[in-house]
Amino acid sequence: MNTNQKLYEGKAKILYATDDADIILSVFKDDATAFNAQKRGTIRGKGEVNCAISTHLFRLLEAEGVRTHWIDTPSPTTMRVRTVTIVPLEVVVRNIAAGSLCRQTGLPVGTPLSPPLVEFYYKNDDLGDPLLTSDRIRILNLAAPSQVEQLQTLALQINNILTKFFDQCGITLVDFKLEFGLDGKQSLLLADEISPDTCRLWDQAETDPERRVMDKDRFRHDLGDVEGAYQRVLARVLGAPLRSPSASEV
User: Fold this and answer.
1) pTM of the predicted structure, to 2 decimals
2) Which one, 7, 37, 142, 222, has the greatest CB density within 10 A?
3) Around Cβ 124, how many Cβ atoms within 10 Å?
C-alpha cells in the first residue's frame, strides 16, 4: 500500500494510506452537505474545528473505557486512525425529539425522551439512509444480532458520557450519530467523528429556537453564523475538563 494514496473521499473527510496497513490518515474537509448531499456548501474552518472537537471527545471516551479508532492528531485537520471495516449502520441516539423524528411521528420539537431512543439507519446514500428495524438488519445481513445488541449498549454508554460532558459546557446534547468499525480482531471500535456535523447541540443559555442552535442545522436551515457556532462549541469543549463527572457528582 502506497503512502499518501487516496483510499476514499467522502462528504466530510478524505482517507489516505500510510506505510502501515493498520493505520490510515483521516483528513477533515471544510465541505458541508445536507439533505443527503442535495444541499452543498463550505463552512470556513470546519475541518480544523471538527478535527479538534473529535480529538478531544475521542480522548474523553478512551479515558472512560470506550475503544475508538483514534490514535493521534498530527496536524490541525488530520487524524491518524486505526484501519477498520465500517459496519454499514448509522447509530443515532436521541435524548430530545428533533429533526426527522418530529417530522415522522408528530412529536413536538423539544420533547424529552426517557430513556433515550436508539435508532439504526442503513448507511447507503443511494437509498437515502433509511431507518431500519432489527428484522431488516437481519434480512440484509448488515450485522449479527449480538453485534446489534453491542452497538446499542455502546451507544448508550457513549451517550451517558457525552451528555454529562456537554452539560459541563453549557450545551444540551439533543441527538447524535455514531459509526462503528471492526478491527483486524473483529472488535467493534467507535469510528468516524463526533462534532457539530454529527450532533444536535443547543446552547443552554439561549431560549430562542434558532439562536440556541450550535450545529449543522444552522447550515441546513440557513440560520446564519454557522462558522461562529462551530467556533463556540470548540471553545467550550476545549475549556471543559477532559473527564466526565462521576455518578456522585451529578
Assistant:
1) 0.94
2) 142
3) 13
